[in-house]
Amino acid sequence: MQTGFETYCPKTEHVKETFCGIIVAAGSGTRFKGELPKQLCNLNGIPVFLHSVNAMVQHPQCIQCILVIDESFREQFEVHLSKVPEHLRDKIKMVEGGSERAISVYNGIRLIDHKHSTGVLIQDAARPGLTAGVINSLLQALETYDGAAPALPVSDSLKRMEGAFIGSVARDNLYRIQTPQAFRKACLLDMYTGDISAATDDFTLAEAKGLSLTMVSGSEALGKITYQEDLTFMEKLLSGVQHVFRSGLGYDVHAFEDGDGVILCGTFIPHRGKLKGHSDADVAWHALTDAILGALADGDIGDHFSPSDPQWKGAPSSVFLEFAANRVRERCGEIVNVDITLICEAPKVKPHRDVMRTKTAEILGIPVSDVAVKATTTERLGFTGREEGIAAQAICSIRLPSHSTAD
User: To pair with 292 at 20 to 30 A between CA atoms, which of 24, 36, 117, 161?
Assistant: First the structure.
C-alpha cells in the first residue's frame, strides 16, 4: 500500500473529477443520549446532517448526494431537505441504513450514478465541518491515488497502560483520520464485496484490498460529534469563523455581426444578428465572470482565458462562469447574490428573463431568488442605441472566511 500526506493547497486549474457523495446519517447515537439522533440536532440554525448535505450539493463537481437514514426519522429528514433550493435538491436521494455502518454505506453504494460519477466521497453526518476546500483536495488526490481521506497529525503525548505499567507510545507518523473518505468508483465497488460487517471505516477495507491511499490535510472542524458536549464545542468552533463580504463589478461589450440570434446568460434569443467574440460572446456571463473575479481580487476573465488561445474558440461561457464560481468555493466562500444589467435596444430580454436567471443560478449553485437579470436602453444614444452591439454590467457579492482574504 502506498501512502502519503498532502497538505491541501487549492490548484488554480479547474477540478475535473465528478463525484457522488454518500452521507451516513442512520446511526442511533446511543452515546449522545439526546431526544433526537445527533444528526438531526440543531447546529447553528440547521440540523447537523444538513451541513454536510449543503457542502456536497453546492459543489460544482457533485452530481449526486445519497443520504443514508434511519427510516423511522424519514419525515424529519424530508422536512429539512425541503428547504434546500430545488435545483440542488434534485441531486439528493435517500435510502434506508443498516445495522452497521458498513452496511449503511453499501446501501448507499447501490444508488450510485455509475454512468456519470468518477469518484465517491463517503461522509459521516456527525462531522458537520465539511468545506469545498476539503472536497477539492480529495478530488485532486484521486487524480493520483485510489483513495484519500483528511487526517490530522496526533499532537498529544500517547501512553499505554497495561495493569500497573504505564509506558510511552511514539506519536511519530500517527494521524487521526477523518471523513469524507474518497475513492475511485471502481475501487470502491471492489472494496464492498465479501464480508464487510466488521469494517469501522472505509480505509480499513481499502487497506485490505492493497489500494494506493493518501491522506490530505484535515481540519478540527471535521471533528466528530459523539457526546452532548461535542455539539456545544462544534457550535462554538463553526460559529467562530469570521467572515467578510466582498463585492465585484464587471462590464463587457460585444458588437453585432451577421447571424440569427444571440446567447445571453446561456439562453439563445432569436435576433437579426449575433454577437461577435472569440467564445460564444455571452456578454452577460462575461460581465458576471469578471464581477466574481473582481470580488476575489483574482484578475479578470482575460487573465484566465486568453482570447488569443484557440482552445476557447467558440467555447460556451458557462465554462468561464463555472471557473469563477469554483474559485470562490476554493477559498471556502459562497456567492451571496448577483445582479446583471443588459444595455441594448434589441432583442427584448424580459420574455427570457426567468430562463436566464434559472440557468445562471444553476451554474453558480445558488437559489434563483439570489439572481437578478434586467435590461435597459440608452434612449437611442451611443453604440447600443444605434443597435451596433450589447453592453452588460454585473455586480456580485460574496462571503469569505476572513483568513481567506489574503492570497
Answer: 117
